[in-house]
Amino acid sequence: MKSFIAIVLSICFVKSSGTSSDALESLPDELIELFNSNGTTWKAGKNFDGLSLSQVKKLFMSSEETLTTNVEQIWHSDSDSHKEFDARTEWPHCPSIGQIFNQGFCSPSWIYASVGQMADRICIKTGQNIDVKATVEHMMNGNYDCNSNFNTADGAKAFRYWSTKGIFIEKPEKSSNQCRCQIKMNDEYFGVSNYRLSQQLDIIKEILSRGPITFHIEVYLDLLYYKSGVYQRTSDVKLGSHLVKVIGWGVENGVDYWLIANSWGTKWGDNGFFKLKRGVGALRVGENNYSALIEKNTKVPSTMDKEQLFLVAHKCSCGCDKSW
Q1: Which residues does the UniProt record annotate as the domain Peptidase C1A papain C-terminal (predicted)?
Q2: Using CB atoms within 10 A as the burial measure, which of 19, 221, 234, 246 is most buried?
């Protein structure tokens, strides 16, 4: 009981003083009982077993980061929407939609959500399955390491890059000892235009017609403990920001939610997924969302950067695994 009171007091100290989350050195199990006692719409449980708060904070971006918003906004024309929708069942031939990845401590928090959305939309558009993990590893190889300050990147930059440079889709071939990760003459090239959605209904219609999109969300202490239900913030302890992939929406016990695929592994949350309450101000999701339109483009640029290359699944992969 004394330890529980101490935890509550420490949380109150962080709230009242306005200090950072550094006041909490660990992720105490006592907070599970505290969050579950709030009578909210979700249940807390143990995640990140054995990890300290300072370690877990490497999974997302600094709270102080200045975001750049996509310039173009679009509005969808009025049409009927669905009360519930799950992109996994709408496009079952695209397994990347439902894949959960473990970004680990050596991957920027934006990369799996961004590459994942592009892979989903390439599959929806062309029927080709992209190997998200291999693509991420290839992009990271030579660009990032665990000592780099790469996790402060603005997620919109990735979409603006692809919008400027386009995307190559490569079908790697096995050689005697490794993958051939080189562009061949018959590889496909797609142009990309990026934009953001203005209203919640526009987001719904965008996912319904073109597939998953990416949200930039704020991360608070209680999200680290999420296990089930519809998450809505109960903590004032802000830890940072993060990019996630939104694959659908629905209603649970009268509460509207977004269905979200995270990149913290399948042991976190509901097998790696979580439901976020829809509405104005929910982790600021309406302020920063990213979408991309993929079109076949016959004008292939003369140069190719690593971030342009997407690898087709079930062939071979390049790079290294940097999960924890």
Answers
A1: 81-294
A2: 246
Distance (Å, whole) CA 24 – CA 88: 38
- Three-state DSSP at 202 gives helix
**pTM of the predicted structure, to 2 decimals:** 0.84
What is the average pLDDT score of the chain? 80
- The one catalytic residue in 47, 262, 288, 289 is 262
pLDDT tens for residues 253-308? 999 999 999 999 999 999 999 999 997 666 666 667 888 899 887 678 777 787 88
Q: Which residue has the tokens 């080189």?
A: 182
Q: What are phi and psi of 190, to 5 degrees?
A: -125, 140
**Does residue 56 contact residue 231 with C-beta atoms inside 8 Å?**
no
Domains, the chain, ordered by start? 59-311 (3.90.70.10)
Q: What is the pLDDT of residues 105-150, one digit of tens each?
A: 888 888 899 999 999 999 999 999 999 999 998 888 866 666 655 5
Give dist(CA 22, CA 231) in Å, integer: 24
DSSP state of 77: P
SS3 229: strand
Distance CA 78, CA 182 (A): 44
**Cα end-to-end span (Å), the chain:** 33
**Please, is 191 exposed, middle or buried when counting C-beta atoms within 10 Å of its C-beta (0-12, 13-18, 19+)?**
middle
- Whether residue 38 lies in the annotated active site: no
Phi-psi region of 200 (alpha: psi -120 to 50; beta: other; left: phi over 0): alpha
- pLDDT at 252 exceeding the cut of 80: yes
Catalytic residue among 47, 70, 194, 242: 242
Dist. CA 70–CA 62, nearest whole Å: 20
Query: How many other C-beta atoms lie within 10 A of the C-beta of residue 25?
Result: 11
* Stronger pLDDT, 79 or 92, i.e. the higher one: 92
With contact defined as beta carbons under 8 Å apart, do 240 and 54 qualify?
no
Question: Six-digit token pair at 200?
Answer: 């919640």
User: Does the annotation count 262 as an active-site position?
Assistant: yes
